[in-house]
Amino acid sequence: MGEIAEMMLNGFYCEQCGCLIDGEETGYPRLCEDCAEEERPHKRKRNRKKAKRK
Ligand SMILES: [Zn+2]
Q1: pLDDT > 90 in the chain, percent
Q2: How many CA atoms does the CB half-sphere of 20 hold within 13 Å?
Q3: How far apart are CA 45 and CA 23, in angstroms?
Q4: Reduced to 3 states, what is the DSSP secondary structure of residue 13?
Q5: What pLDDT is recorded for position 40?
Q6: Cα separation of 14 and 33, whole Å?
Q7: What residues pack around ion ligand 1 (CB closer than 5 A)?
Q8: 7, 33, 39, 42: least buried by Cβ within 10 Å?
Q9: What's the CA gap between 19 and 31, in Å, rounded?
């Protein structure tokens, strides 16, 4: 739990779903593309679940 939580805080993993984002550490928590899309009330695509990207 500790390590992953830390990596999430470093922006390595999505802070919401915990998936790998792009392999970079930003030093602050961030969201993966899927979660970021859900966060934005703006453009709402088809509601596919965040299963797999790519
Ligand atoms: Zn996510």
Answers
A1: 65
A2: 4
A3: 25
A4: strand
A5: 82
A6: 9
A7: 14, 16-17, 32, 35
A8: 42
A9: 9
Determine the Cα–Cα distance for residues 53 and 13; give it in Å rounded to an integer: 14
pTM for the structure as a whole:
0.66
3-state secondary structure of 35: helix
Cα of 52 from ligand 1 centre, angstroms: 10
CB 14 within 8 A of CB 8: yes
Q: Which two tokens stand for residue 15?
A: 């802070």
**Average predicted confidence (pLDDT) for the chain:** 86
Cα of 11 vs centre of ligand 1, distance in Å, is 11
- For tokens 């596919």, name the residue: 48
